[in-house]
Design goal:
Blueprint (H helix, E strand, L loop, with lengths): L16 H11 L4 H8 L4 H15 L4 H8 L4 H21 L4 H18 L5 H10 L24 H10 L4 H13 L6 H14 L9 H11 L4 H8 L3 H15 L9 H13 L3 H11 L18 H20 L8
Protein name: DUF4034 domain-containing protein
Length: 335
């Protein structure tokens, strides 16, 4: 049961206790827990999520390289090595590092090797999608293929299709495609992003995290506005915004395995329900979050989006409002 006074905590592993233990060991340079965790990971969706988190932690060390050197025939080690190289290339691109092109090439080659060695694994294809955002001008042919439907854009559709074959509606694959949309133009065409997430969610089954994606695009739209908090306050009480929030609740949250749910998705949904005054429904999501939170999108409701303390304060106020409505339904508009 969530408490109004419980301080929020950020941890990349969220509710995944086994992943949290592996992350702790990885931060000290130990890789055996990571190997054992991945060996026991039961499905591609969780595999994708766990390898992504582990790569963000391992990118600043040589722990994965040590594992691969110790067990050169390990396919899991090879996939994690690819993950780390891709993470480093994406970071270098974001920071405008002089070695970006070199790191990109290394990562791209590693993706090809991993795809051949692990033909059933969606992660090498997800990694190629992650690298596609480095090609904002779409110079590579594989990044400007014709789209599968109207109102969509030329892009790396074959890469998305390969990931989809291996793990249909893979959450990270579609979010990487969304990042490509933002990167392909200087203004990161938001109309194309809206069309993409609506297309993606339209065919996704119940329980798929793709139903949350429209909420991400709505926040991105208003992130780019001046006066973030005012724009968001006005935006979420509109009929279509409320509809998006409730659809994500009904089609994703009500059917999802919440123990494996992305903290990003849970925070986006909690924020959208609170913003659209659906306080009782929001309380359910805050209960599922427990002590865990991420600063986005809460930071965009502050005067200083880079101030973590302000973001935490907004999160706490939203949680308190929703939990209060759940205790006294007569006090909320959705009661």
């Amino acid at each position: 049961m969530a408490s109004d006074n419980m301080r929020p905590v950020y941890h990349p592993a969220g509710h995944d206790n086994e992943l949290r233990a592996a992350v702790q060991d990885l931060r000290t340079g130990r890789w055996v827990s990571m190997r054992n965790l991945l060996a026991d990971t039961p499905d591609w969706a969780l595999w994708t999520q766990r390898t992504q988190v582990l790569a963000t932690v391992a990118a600043g060390s040589d722990a994965v390289q040590a594992w691969l050197s110790e067990e050169p025939r390990s396919v899991a080690a090879l996939v994690m090595h690819t993950r780390v190289l891709v993470e480093r290339a994406v970071r270098a691109h974001r920071e405008g590092h002089a070695r970006t092109q070199e790191l990109w090439q290394q990562a791209w080659e590693a993706c090809g090797t991993a795809a051949r060695q692990a033909p059933a694994d969606p992660v090498p294809w997800v990694c190629l999608l992650a690298l596609s955002q480095l090609d904002g001008r779409q110079r590579l042919e594989e990044h400007r293929l014709a789209p599968p439907g109207p109102m969509l854009f030329p892009g790396p559709w074959a890469l998305l299709s390969e990931a989809d074959k291996r793990d249909p509606y893979n959450r990270e694959a579609y979010h990487r495609m969304l990042q490509f949309v933002y990167a392909r133009r200087a203004d990161g065409s938001l109309s194309e992003a809206v069309n993409f997430v609506q297309w993606a969610a339209s065919s996704a089954p119940e329980g798929s995290a793709l139903h949350v994606m429209p909420l991400f695009v709505r926040v991105e739209r208003y992130r780019r506005e001046n006066g973030h908090e005012k724009a968001l306050d006005l935006h979420w009480v509109t009929e279509d915004a409320t509809r998006d929030a409730l659809r994500a609740l009904q089609l994703w949250f009500d059917h999802a395995v919440l123990a494996e749910a992305s903290l990003l998705d849970l925070n986006q949904l909690a924020h959208a329900l609170w913003g659209s005054l659906q306080f009782e429904a929001g309380a359910r999501v805050f209960e599922a979050l427990g002590p865990y939170y991420v600063s986005v999108p809460w930071a965009y409701r502050t005067r200083s989006p880079g101030d973590a303390a302000q973001a935490e304060d907004v999160f706490l106020r939203a949680r308190a409002r929703c939990l209060a409505a759940a205790r006294d339904p007569r006090g909320g508009p959705d009661g």
